[in-house]
Each structure stands twice: as structure tokens, then as C-alpha cells.
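Dear Dr. K.,

Following up on our conversation at the group meeting, I've run the structure prediction for Chemotaxis protein CheZ from Cohaesibacter gelatinilyticus. I'm pasting the input sequence below exactly as I used it, so you can double-check it against your construct before we proceed with anything downstream. Let me know if the numbering doesn't match what you have in your notebook.
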Amino acid sequence: MAQSENLAAKTNIEQIVKYLEQNKTDDVSLTDIMSLAEVMAKSLDAHVEAIDQHAYSEFSAIAAEITSMKQEIAALCPTDMRNNSIPDAGRELDAVVDATENATNTIMGAAEEIMCADPSDADAYSTLVNDKIIEIFEACSFQDITGQRISKVVRTLNLIDERVSGFIERLKVQDLDAPQMEETEEERRRRELILHGPQHSGEGVDQNDVDQMLNDMDFDSIDAEEEKKSDQSEIDNLFA
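The predicted C-alpha cells came back this morning:
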């Protein structure tokens, strides 16, 4: 197809050249000009059509990519995550905090009442202790409910991770070498004070290291130094 179109264009151009050679000494009329223009236009038809087809193919490919990307984004269900999944996870965690706080207060309150109870009346003391022990056991049942709530949050996070990871994999998104962000004052303070919150098992500072550090400290020398300062202050006050 392309070869035949190129051959036709070449033939048209050859006709124009031949015509110009034959009539180069004659006056060119408007009709001649129109005829030449028509021949030239026909000679360009194949090229214009080829360009149009290429442009159409390129724009069609771009449109297909955009449609595919929209489908991938829709598959993430971002509206559902924003309106349902993430808010639900936040509410579940809030409920875990409330349940843990209430259970802790109940357990500590019951333990305090047991410690403050008068054991002189054995029967009354035994009844109170039994009642408070039951309260403590009932309060400990919060762990089952909070475990279920946390499991729901974990499932939500896993679902979001699965969707986003699949989206990134299908689009073949590559990580960029982002410039290192300047450390803020708050980040520096947290790093220096090691305010990272509770650590996982095997992470953070080991209790044995803390004990060893305390054992290595010479508290006797510190106490002696404080006594010297105190004695000197008392002497100074005498002459004040």
C-alpha cells in the first residue's frame, strides 16, 4: 500500500516536471496553475494520509493509556478508602484506646481497694477480695475485643497496601532519587532525646545495658560531692 502511494506521488511529480519542461517558454495561464496545483495536491495525498494515520495511532495509544490509568485508579476504590476504610480504622483504634483505658482504671481501682481493705474482719475482707478479683477478671476480657478491633485495622491496612502495590506494579512506577530533606527542629529533638515510643521485641535499649550503666555509676562520689556543697553553704551562711 505504501509503495503504491509513493509510486503514484512520484509519477505525479514527474508529470509536473515534464509539463514545465515542455511549456517553459510559453505563458502560463491561470488554468495551467490550477492544474499544477491539483496535481501537486494529489501528489501529497499519500504523505498527508500517512501522517494523519500516524498521528491518529499515537493519540489513540495515549487515550488508551489514560483510560487504563483511570481504570487502575478506580480499582483502588479511593473514595471507599477515604470515606469508609480509613475512618473506620481510626474509630477502631480510638475504641481500643478507650477500652484499654477503662480496663486499666478498673483493674487499678480494684487492686487499690484490696490493698486498702481492713483484714481484721476476715469474712468481709474475703468477700471484698473475691468481688474485686472478679472485677479484675472481667476487666481483662477487654483483650479479646481489642484484639478483634486491631485485627480489623490490620486487614484494612493490608488491603490498602495490596491495592497500592498492585497499582504501582502495573504502571511500572520507579522510585525517584528524591533530595534529602532538611531535618526539622522537632525531628532533631526527637532523635537526640530518643523519643521513639515503645520499641518492638529485640529493638531499642536493652534493660541489661541500663542496669550495667547504673552499676558503673559512682553514686558514693556523687553523694560525697553533694555533702561538700551542702557543708560549704552552711559555713557561708554563718558568716553572711
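Two things stood out to me. The chain has a mean pLDDT of 74. Residues 2-74 form one domain.

Best regards,
J.T.
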